[in-house]
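Key result, reporting period 2: structure in, sequence out.
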């Protein structure tokens, strides 16, 4: 019968669930390290970039503005797409804006890569641990049912069996908390960078008409 089949599966115990949680924990650590390296390597000092870029835009110095956005970062990569468009002679603000929005979408996908599995692990690891606890309790009560009356009625035996079963829940929570914290940190970091990029995008768009003085041949493109 189906119930007997399920009981046989439950009696396997919770050890395989613990190994699964350990594997998910290792994967979470790898994702966190991978994203942390990217975020640290491409961190942006907006307090330095903004005045220098604004000054170059105000002086109609396209070359200087382009030099300010050469380094790899979310903000600079977005702005570079717009400035490259201007250098190509495409000064229509809508065209420049679309180039930067396209770059922003690519950068967002780049920074959010592998965050979905991390969030999924953070949200579901406690439930996986709880499932392991249920399996452990089923196994514990089955073993007590097979024991003699004296052993089955011993509080020490009951408490030890339930304590072992609860380990899976504890491990699930331990896996979930760092994963959720890292996921929230990454999402807030990305959101902050996108806001910075949007702010400087407006400065580039407002300056598109000024670059007529910087490249007189561009109108021929």
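The corresponding designed sequence is given below.
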């Amino acid at each position: 019968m189906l119930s007997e089949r399920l009981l046989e599966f439950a009696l396997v115990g919770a050890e395989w669930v613990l190994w699964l949680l350990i594997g998910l924990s290792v994967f979470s650590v790898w994702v966190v390290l991978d994203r942390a390296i990217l975020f640290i390597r491409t961190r942006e000092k907006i307090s330095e970039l903004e005045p220098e870029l604004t000054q170059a835009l105000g002086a109609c110095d396209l070359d200087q503005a382009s030099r300010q956005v050469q380094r790899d970062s979310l903000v600079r990569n977005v702005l570079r797409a717009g400035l490259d468009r201007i250098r190509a002679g495409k000064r229509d603000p809508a065209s420049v804006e679309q180039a930067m929005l396209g770059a922003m979408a690519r950068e967002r996908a780049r920074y959010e890569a592998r965050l979905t599995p991390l969030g999924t692990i953070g949200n579901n690891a406690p439930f996986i641990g709880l499932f392991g606890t249920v399996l452990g309790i089923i196994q514990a009560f089955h073993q007590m049912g097979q024991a003699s009356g004296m052993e089955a009625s011993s509080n020490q035996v009951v408490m030890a069996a339930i304590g072992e079963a609860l380990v899976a829940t504890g491990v699930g929570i331990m896996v979930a908390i760092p994963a959720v914290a890292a996921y929230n940190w990454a999402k807030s970091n990305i959101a902050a960078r996108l806001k910075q990029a949007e702010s400087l995008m407006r400065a580039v768009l407002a300056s598109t008409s000024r670059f007529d003085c910087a490249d007189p041949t561009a109108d021929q493109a």
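The chain has nine helices and no strands. The mean pLDDT is 83. This case is discussed further under Risks and Mitigation.
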